Each structure stands twice: as C-alpha cells, then as structure tokens.
Amino acid sequence: MGKKPYSDSRWWDNPMPHTPQCGKCKNYIGYIDGLLCCKAFDSIPRDILNDYVLHDHPIDGDHGFQYEPIDPGAPQPVRREKIMPYD
Prior knowledge:
The chain is largely without helices or strands and 87 residues long. It has one helix at 46-49; strands spanning 28-32, 35-38. It has a two-stranded antiparallel sheet. Strand 1 (28-32) and strand 2 form a beta hairpin.
C-alpha cells in the first residue's frame, strides 16, 4: 500500500518553515494565470521553488535573469537536498 497524501510529518510539523529563494528576489513577479512567475520564467520550475537548484547561475530558458536579492545584506539562499523520492 502506498503512502497517503499529506501523511509525511513535514506537512504538519515544520518548526522552520521554508521561504523559497524566489520570494527574496528582485525578479520575482508572483502569480499570473495560476502560475508562479518571474522575469526569468513564465512558470518557475519546481526544483528552483524548492531550492533544490539555486538560480545563482544561468539556467536554460531563464532569459538572462538570475537570482538578485532584494536586500544585498541578507543571507544567501542555501541549496536543499531532496529527502523524499516524491520531492
């Protein structure tokens, strides 16, 4: 039997909520037609939203835009490791 949706404790017990690098970037736009958008992507890839891939270097299809912090003095984003196979 497979795992039930939302059964992972990370959905309910997260002492350190995650704010993706996109929310701290000058190029972030927000929702357009139900998709999270920025100047680089019409639909931000899931691995970038989850910080599994940091967008501090050119990525195919990013139209020449990369992560630029709103506050240059803020800590830099940290790459996260995938924990679960469905991440």
